[in-house]
């Protein structure tokens, strides 16, 4: 008989970091594509758009209110983050309306990748470590995050 598998508890921060990792992987994959890989670029962009939009909504609903409430300068951090999310949404929507044959397509994708990489660094290196010191049920928040994600998709 096999030994029971021990479930490792997942926190909301773990889940968000997985999303970030996948987004960065997607940006790198896109950057490595050739100039003529139009079909693949469009496919990668569509999947990335869906994943990223879901991530932004889930983060804003589950995590950002806690950042605003518990962190010093929390409201300012959230305002800055929401402006970055809005910029990302604008670029995602712009890409959604563009043809991959458009000469500005790759450059628009690159701008989105740069913006998101900067935003992710800020969250992972500054905001999340501060939040982890707050007494919150991060495992329960992981469940809440997944619920919000299911409602968005
Ligand atoms: Fe964010
Ligand atoms: Fe994030």
Written description of the protein model:
Helices cover 78% and strands 0% of the residues. It has one domain. Helix 3 packs antiparallel against helix 4 (105-131). The model has no long low-confidence stretch (mean pLDDT 94). By secondary structure, the protein is mostly helical. The chain has five helices and no strands. It has helices at residues 12-32, 38-70, 74-96, 105-131, 138-152. The chain binds fe (ii) ion (2 copies). One fe (ii) ion (FE2) binds at residues 59, 81, 85, 119, 123. It comes from Aquirhabdus parva. It holds the Pfam family Hemerythrin.
Describe the secondary structure blueprint for this structure.
Blueprint: H1 12-32, H2 38-70, H3 74-96, H4 105-131, H5 138-152
Helix pairs in contact: 1-2, 1-4, 1-5, 2-3, 2-5, 3-4
The structure holds fe (ii) ion (2 copies).
One fe (ii) ion is lined by residues 16, 20, 55, 59, 120, 123.
Protein name: Hemerythrin domain-containing protein
Organism: Aquirhabdus parva
Domain Hemerythrin-like: 12-131
């Amino acid at each position: 008989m096999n030994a029971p598998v021990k479930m490792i508890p997942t926190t909301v921060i773990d889940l968000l970091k997985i999303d970030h990792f996948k987004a960065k992987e997607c940006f790198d994959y896109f950057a490595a594509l050739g100039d003529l890989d139009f079909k693949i670029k469009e496919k990668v962009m569509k999947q990335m758009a869906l994943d990223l939009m879901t991530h932004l909504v889930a983060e804003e609903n589950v995590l950002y209110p806690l950042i605003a409430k518990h962190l010093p300068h929390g409201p300012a951090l959230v305002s800055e983050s929401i402006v970055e999310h809005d910029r990302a949404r604008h670029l995602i929507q712009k890409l959604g309306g563009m043809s991959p044959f458009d000469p500005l397509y790759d450059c628009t994708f690159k701008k989105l990748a740069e913006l998101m990489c900067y935003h992710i660094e800020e969250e992972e290196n500054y905001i999340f470590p501060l939040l982890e010191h707050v007494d919150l049920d991060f495992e329960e928040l992981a469940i809440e995050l997944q619920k919000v994600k299911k409602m968005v998709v």
